[in-house]
UniProtKB/TrEMBL annotation:
Signal peptide location: 1-20
Keywords per UniProt: Signal
Tagged with keyword Signal: yes
Name recorded for this polypeptide: DoxX family membrane protein
């Protein structure tokens, strides 16, 4: 479980980075969220920070794993949908 904890820390740091350097996340965020990208960068940062922190402790790890799986699937679906949609 040390690997999951380390991944949680990395995800939490990435989430916090959305607020410290939002422009770094703009190119990838535009793929899934072409409209209102700046707001979605913050929302995704908050989500990744929360999920990352959930993965760091044994008590919340299962919920964090489920949340991370759902979040990853949702992001993938949003990206795929927006790649098919005409711009």
């Amino acid at each position: 479980m040390a690997l999951v904890r380390a991944a949680g820390i990395a995800l939490a740091v990435t989430g916090a980075a959305h607020f410290a350097a939002p422009k770094a996340f703009e190119p990838v965020s535009k793929l899934a969220f072409p409209n209102d990208t700046d707001a979605w960068i913050k929302r995704n940062g908050a989500t990744e920070l929360a999920l990352g922190l959930a993965l760091t402790t044994r008590k919340t790890r299962k919920a964090g794993l489920v949340g991370a799986a759902v979040y990853t699937a949702w992001l993938g679906a949003r990206t795929a949908y927006n790649r098919k949609s005409p711009s």
